[in-house]
Amino acid sequence: MCETMSSYEEEREKMASIAMQIVIHAGDARNLIMEALDHAAEGLYDQAEDKLKEAREELRQAHIFQTEVVQSEAGGKKYEYSLLFTHAQDTVMTICTEMNLAKKIISMYRKLDDRISKLEEKAEV
Questions:
Q1: I need a surface site. Which of 3, 48, 105, 114 has the fewest CB within 10 A?
Q2: Could you give the angle at the alpha carbon of 60 between the alpha carbons of 56 and 64, nearest 5°?
Q3: What is the DSSP letter of 78?
């Protein structure tokens, strides 16, 4: 006797897979954001910007998976509540906030470095 997954089980598996992809991409974005902040703290702004660019791409990938589910539900498809998908959405939103804060922090680092450099130049005169 060959057992097959019911369509309900297949949908749950698909939703779990999508949710995990969202979490993975968002988690990778978080790691890249932290690397960007580390670079900025060292004054390595080009490297920081490169890491933020990579993080944006990871968030874009997470968003693609999220949008697939949201658009199909908006089109009438019914999904059972998924704690894992809810966690995935929460993770994406949190990391988007971290991205916004990281951009602001890096900008502040740059401005502080510029001000310090100008003060040091004045002190040398």
A1: 3
A2: 170
A3: -
Q: Is the dihedral of CA 42, 47, 52, 55 positive or negative?
A: negative
Could you report the per-residue pLDDT of 75-94, keeping only the tens digit for each? 999 888 999 999 999 999 99
Q: What does the pLDDT look like over 36-63, one tens digit per residue?
A: 999 999 999 999 999 999 999 999 999 9
Which residues participate in the annotated binding site for Mg(2+)? 90
| CATH numbers and ranges of domains, the chain | 13-124 (1.20.58.80)
Sign of CA dihedral 72, 78, 84, 88: positive
Q: Is 87 a catalytic residue?
A: yes
CA angle 124, 46, 61 (to 5 degrees): 155
For residue 58, give every residue at least 6 positions away whose Cβ sits within 8 Å of its Cβ, in sequence order, or none.
Answer: 25, 26, 28, 29, 32
CB 96 within 8 A of CB 29: no
